Each structure stands twice: as C-alpha cells, then as structure tokens.
C-alpha cells in the first residue's frame, strides 16, 4: 500500500494509524528558521534566526508580541504563524475586556492547541504548518510552551524548534537545570549561544537574529514583552566572543620552568 493513498485527506487514517498530513505539517516546522526559548523564575527569552529568501529580500518576522505579558516565536510557514498570532492577540484582548485581567499563559496555549486540533478533524481543512513557542508571565510565574501542529502542547524550561534545532537542544540540555536562577542578561546570552549552534558556517550578528524578553520587575510589575535593540544584541555578542577568545592562564608548571624551558618549534 502506498502512502499517497492516505495523505490526500487529513481525516484519513493509514493502516499503521498515522495521519500523514499532520506529519507533513510537523516536517514543515523542522524546515523553518530555528527558534529558541528559555525560561527563568521571572523572565522568558525568545530568540530566532533571521533568514532571507534571497540576497535581494528582507527576512520575515518570526517573533510577535501577543500582549504586554506574552509573545510568540514561530518556525514553519510564516503566513500561518501570522494568522495564529493574530488569533492569540484577539483572545488576550477579549479576555482582558471581559474579566479585566490578563489571560493566563496556560489557557492561552490551550486555546491555541484547540484551534490547531480542529484542523485535524475537518476534511476541508489542512493543519497549520507552523510550530509556536509561547512565552508569557502570569500570577504563577514565567512560562514557556511549545504548540505543535497536531494540537499537542507542552511546557518547557528551555526548548528549540526549526532547522538544525537539535544542536541548540543539546546545548540547552546541558544547562537548563540552572535557568531558574538566571538573570535576564544570562538568559539572553544563553539564547544567543543556542542560536549560534544552529548556524552552519555563518557568523552570529545582530542582523541575523532577533531576541525578545518578557518578565517581572523587582517591584512586582510586569516588564512588557519587547524586542531587544540590535545594538544591545551586538554588544552582548561581542562580549561573548571576547570571553571565548580570552587566553587561558598558564599552569604553575609552565611558570616554574622559566628560562630553562626548551624553545618551541615554530
């Protein structure tokens, strides 16, 4: 039996119990520009790679503000991501108008998952070919969710999606245990380092990445979701590169040798 007998309709199950159109949508996420999210106790950072379609075109936005307390980063079909980000923005506005309170991030991720899951139940629809990292802050603290085209969603301490995201995941897995106590600047630096892992032979600069942050200030008020200035990002990148290029201190054994050491071959 051939696959194309079961992938023309999103509601048609294959004999192996698979929905191929949903799997195709998940593959579209893997082919999109890499996005990274990191979460501490009071702050969440989102970072994405700016990838232009050609040298003559500009890049498409991958990070969107949803409300003062929430934002999203997306990988996959940007057009689908814009539709979903507009849906999330309307949900936040409606909830704030009715209840005069911020929409909890967990409920925001749930409504997004429900909207995506409907597209797997209607034969005249197709799944959204985009994955979203939903970052936000509410009364319970800072949260980071990943919403899948299948309608599933998961909460993470740190996560990466998109092209070559496995390298970023490997970097994050080695460090995520300490993210709860990180300062905002430390989170941004680790987000930039994770983004750097996804670039193959390309230098990380402020022009090929976007970073955004949302969090809580020391006085308890919300620090609104905002994109970090490109100049500030470049300063952080330069400081990271300077720290990596700093020479290591010579060992005590080398110091004790002094002038008795044999000359090195050059």
TrEMBL record:
Main localisation: cytoplasm
CDD domains with a match to the protein in the record: proteasome_alpha_type_1 (cd03749)
UniProtKB keywords: Cytoplasm, Nucleus, Proteasome
Signal peptide limits: none
One GO cellular component term: proteasome core complex, alpha-subunit complex
Domain Proteasome alpha-type subunits, first and last residues per copy: 6-28
Cell compartment(s), UniProt: Cytoplasm; Nucleus
Alphabetized Pfam families for the sequence: Proteasome, Proteasome_A_N
Family matches, as Gene3D superfamilies: Glutamine Phosphoribosylpyrophosphate, subunit 1, domain 1
Biased composition (Low complexity): 242-253
Chain positions covered by the region annotation Disordered: 242-266
Family: Belongs to the peptidase T1A family.
Known role: The proteasome is a multicatalytic proteinase complex which is characterized by its ability to cleave peptides with Arg, Phe, Tyr, Leu, and Glu adjacent to the leaving group at neutral or slightly basic pH. The proteasome has an ATP-dependent proteolytic activity.
Quaternary structure annotation from Swiss-Prot or TrEMBL: The 26S proteasome consists of a 20S proteasome core and two 19S regulatory subunits. The 20S proteasome core is composed of 28 subunits that are arranged in four stacked rings, resulting in a barrel-shaped structure. The two end rings are each formed by seven alpha subunits, and the two central rings are each formed by seven beta subunits. The catalytic chamber with the active sites is on the inside of the barrel. The 20S proteasome core is composed of 28 subunits that are arranged in four stacked rings, resulting in a barrel-shaped structure. The two end rings are each formed by seven alpha subunits, and the two central rings are each formed by seven beta subunits.
Protein name (Swiss-Prot/TrEMBL): Proteasome subunit alpha type
